[in-house]
Structure formats: structure tokens, C-alpha cells
Amino acid sequence: MKSAKKSAMQNAMKYPKANTPIILCSVLILISTLATHTPVYAGDPPTIQFKEAGKLVKKLTLEELGKLVSAEKIKVNELHEKSQMEYQAFRFKSVLDAIYGKRWSKTEEILFTCSDGYQPSVPQAKIEAYPSFLAFGRPDHDFTLTYEKKLIPLGPFYLIWDNIHTEELKWEDMGDWPYQVTTVDLIRFQDHFPNLAPPEKSSAAAKRGFLTYRKNCLTCHTINGEGGNKAPELNYPINILEYYSEKWLKKWISDPTSIRYRTGMPAFNPEAQNRAQKIEDLVAYLRAMGKNKKKPPQ
Ligand code: HEC
User: Are strands 55-61 and 47-52 parallel, antiparallel or unpaired?
Assistant: First the structure.
């Protein structure tokens, strides 16, 4: 955390607010960064929507966003490619300040929607505590990366974290690194996902499992129709434990490729602490949801 603060400070020092020559200088850097490195798009320019509880607040192109927030270059440990990579990006907190003012600090979660259906919800406290960036390009490179031998387009926007200077982020997997981000929404978890919580009288394991599910599975899967759109529904009409045995479900979560040679599902974070317990908890949560089926809206 110490080093994260230091790097935030160093960056703040690079962009002091009340110093005209430096402002001019950063505007020039910004213009040149945008002008020389913005990829040329054949179709529509990269655009992002900002919402609050599902209601549109602002829709901006990359160019318009670049007029509100200065761009910088940031190096991260790229978890998909397992190497250090540099991105052109906006400090995400500055983006939130510019769009929502101080309102965003009162939100519970920030929900990212991606064009491939991925949908992570990141607690506001995490955005507050650790430096994150909305990347829009790579210097002298297409805005893509290679993951599992596939070329992934990252645009219009990609949320990245300074995991080089932040100890706590070093052990995280890429769950909170959504690419192809098209929408940012300030939400209250309970309002946005009213049918995901386990029943009140569920076991402690099921309640812990819910927290793990929110962070690691919700991004791709739906339960009762709520969640990401990248993977199958796990509860309605048939709960997963009605056709998977507990033993095979645990094996699947732990290491999907040990069951299907090719699968779009990643293994549950190999670096997670108390991993076996967390997988037990996930199963308890999924089982509890079997008694809480709700028909998804059409
Ligand atoms: C990056 C997206 C992604 C994440 C994150 C993810 N899954 Fe999956 N999952 C998939 C995809 C895609 C499939 C479809 C099967 C395949 O591709 O082989 C799948 C399949 C499944 C299945 C089998 C469904 C069936 O009916 O055959 C289960 C169970 C499952 N996932 C549970 C989980 C759990 C529990 C988590 C959290 C620990 C999780 N998944 C996280 C993408 C994901």
C-alpha cells in the first residue's frame, strides 16, 4: 500500500492542478498521445456510456473523454500475457470525478459491461483504495493482446490496475480486468441483482460462497437470469447440482480443463487463499440457490 500511495503521489506531482506551464505541457502531451497513438477506427469511434442505477448520465467518445481527463502511460503486470506491458490510459478515479463529481464515492459498486457479455461488479472501496486506469491504447501497438493463443481486441476500453506498485493486487487474478468495456454504471448490488442472494436462513458456508461467487463467477454466468452473459445459467430452470454431482462440480471449478480439453471457463484463481474451502463454499451457495429459483424476466 505504501508504494501504491507513493506512485499515486508521484503521478499527482507530474500533473499538479494549479501550475499553468505544466498544465499546458500536459495538454500538449495529451494531444500528442491521443494524436499519435489513437488507433484509426474504420467504423464508429470508441465510445463509452456512463450510467447511474441504469440511467444514462453521459455518452462520450475517446476524444471527448480525452478533453476531460489527461492521458498517461502506465506499465502493469499483464495477467493475460504474464509479462509487463505498457498502456495509454486515464486514471479511473479522475474519469469518475469528471463524470459524476463526488457522487461516485457514495456508490456501493461499479458495474462494468463488456461487448462480449462479461460483467464484473467492483466494490467502490476497491476503486477508492487501489490505483486503476481506463486504458484506450498501447504505445506503438494495436490495442490487442494475446490470451490462450487468441488475439483479443481490448477496445473500446480496458480496466487495468497498477499491480506493480500495489502489493495487495499482486495475487489477484484477472477477474477485475474487464476488456471491451462499453458501459460503466454506479449501482447498489442489491438493486441491480435482487435475485442472487442466498435465502436468509442459509448456512454460513453458503453466505461466504455468495461473496466468492460475486467476485469470481458472476462476471460470466447468470443465476436466476442475473449476471454476465458469457456463460450458461446455473440455476433456472434446473440447478447445476441437480445434474452435476458435488465431486465433479468441485473438480470442474478447480480445473475445468481436467474435464473438457477445450473450455471457455478459467480455473478458479489458483493463487486464492484457502482455495479448497472457498470451492466448498461455492458449492454450498449453488446448492442453496437451488431452493431459491426465480424465473428470469424475458
Ligand atoms: C470467464 C468466464 C467464466 C468465469 C469467470 C466462470 N465461468 Fe463457468 N463457464 C464458462 C463457460 C464459457 C462455460 C461453458 C462451458 C465450456 O465452455 O466448456 C462454463 C461452464 C460452467 C459450468 C457447467 C455448466 C453446464 O451446465 O455444463 C459450471 C457449473 C460453471 N461454469 C461454474 C462456474 C463457477 C462456480 C465459477 C466461479 C468460480 C465460474 N463458472 C466462472 C465461463 C466462465
Answer: antiparallel
